[in-house]
Design brief:
Blueprint: E1 3-6, E2 11-18, E3 23-29, H1 32-35, E4 38-40, E5 44-47, E6 54-60, E7 64-69, E8 74-80, E9 86-92, E10 103-108, E11 111-116, E12 121-126, E13 136-140, E14 148-151, E15 154-158, E16 164-165, E17 170-171, E18 177-180, E19 202-205, E20 210-214, E21 220-224, E22 230-235, E23 244-246, E24 253-255, E25 258-268, E26 272-283, E27 299-304, E28 309-315, E29 324-327, E30 333-339, E31 346-352
Parallel strand pairs: 3-22, 4-28
Antiparallel strand pairs: 1-2, 2-3, 5-31, 6-7, 7-8, 8-9, 10-11, 11-12, 12-13, 14-15, 15-18, 16-17, 19-20, 20-21, 21-22, 23-24, 25-26, 26-27, 27-28, 29-30, 30-31
Length: 356
């Protein structure tokens, strides 16, 4: 295996490595990208007038913000970032049609995806029709998975049985991703269940026809082509080893004492993958641990869809571990919905990566 360094040893690339589906590029990010992170200030900040119930938001086309709401009768609201007006409220809490109980959100290209993990229903909202709201039911999702997105007429799901750990001597020999119509349950009592420890968002570029899985604990990003063949794996710069424990009475895995946070959020456009990174380990037995805010500003890493490292940034004032990344209409513009450290005021901050 031939290794060579680029970006002054900020990245190590190992070409021609054998992955689970064939030859892949392995990219190892080093701690140098932390030291070399470019400090960025937000060039605009949107403050909500009624922010007491908002805690996460996704920005579309530089104009609209979809907010997840807590403590109201509805789960979701649409805001106009230019006027500050709340335009619509939708997906009320409940068991009825187009209602939700436990919604999970992702923004995939021009579509807002809402997965009600309690009722196993996936809804879609075409963002290109904003400010109009049209909620469409994509289908039932009975298959066991923590991350699922609509994909080429069906669903693409993170496999809860994908797990390999040499130290524990476990290799389920399962693919990381699988296609499903949503009806299969995929429960296997004989295999290690990793749904509690392997988590993170799925990203999809319909132009590049590529998919990425961003692991929120292990510092790893896996990139697949349109046939779900892995083409690249990006690991680092974290140097910790996540510890797991398997329950004696079940096949489920849990984290052991320490919990690692690598990627807080992720977003993509047709050119780049954007990763909000902390890289910290917290002791779950320590009552003094802050589970909501990082001790310092979070980092932003930029990759292309081949897994090539582009740049790293330090986002001034972004410390909340509930922060959410969104992309602007043009490459290099990103938005971060965040809670302000010290006040927990909710805001959306805009960063221009083209200005240094």
């Amino acid at each position: 295996m031939r290794k060579f360094s680029i970006f002054l040893l900020a990245v190590i690339v190992a070409s021609g490595c054998v992955g689970e589906t064939g030859m892949i590029d392995e990219v190892v990010l080093t701690e140098k990208i932390i030291a070399d992170g470019v400090s960025l200030q937000a060039d605009s900040v949107f403050q909500f007038k009624d922010s007491v119930f908002q805690w996460k938001a996704w920005v579309y086309d530089d104009r609209y913000a979809v907010c997840a709401i807590q403590g109201e009768t509805y789960s979701t609201a649409l805001y106009d970032l230019e006027s500050g007006a709340r335009l619509h409220e939708f997906l009320y809490f409940g068991n009825g049609p187009k209602e939700v109980i436990f919604p999970s959100y992702s923004l995939q290209n021009d579509t807002l995806v809402i997965h009600d993990k309690s009722r196993n229903i996936i809804y879609q909202v075409p963002c290109c029709r904003f400010p109009d709201i049209e909620v469409e039911e994509a289908g039932k999702m009975e298959a066991l998975s923590i991350s699922t997105i609509p994909y080429k007429g069906g669903f693409l799901a993170l496999n809860p049985y994908w797990f390999k750990n040499d130290r524990m001597g476990i290799d389920n020999k399962e693919p990381m991703l699988y296609l499903t119509d949503g009806k299969e349950t995929r429960y296997n009592s004989k295999k290690t269940l990793a749904i509690n420890v392997v988590q993170g968002p799925l990203l999809y570029s319909d132009v590049k026809d590529r998919v990425a899985f961003v692991n929120t604990s292990e510092a790893c990003v896996s990139i697949f082509d349109g046939n779900l063949e892995k083409v690249a794996e990006v690991s680092g710069p974290a140097d910790y080893e996540v510890q797991y424990i398997q329950h004696k009475t079940s096949n489920e895995l849990s984290f052991y004492q320490e919990l690692a946070t690598s990627y807080v959020s992720a977003a993509s456009d047709n050119d780049f993958i954007y990763l909000l990174y902390e890289g910290a380990v917290r002791d779950s037995y320590d009552d003094a641990v802050d589970w909501d805010f990082s001790s310092e500003n979070l980092y932003l890493f930029v990759l292309d869809w081949n897994g090539t490292f582009i740049e790293s940034y330090v986002l001034d004032g972004i410390r909340s571990l509930h922060s959410v990344l969104s992309v602007g209409a043009e490459p290099g513009i990103i938005y971060v919905s965040t809670l302000e450290y010290g006040t927990e005021d909710f805001a959306i901050k805009r960063f221009n990566l083209n200005k240094r």
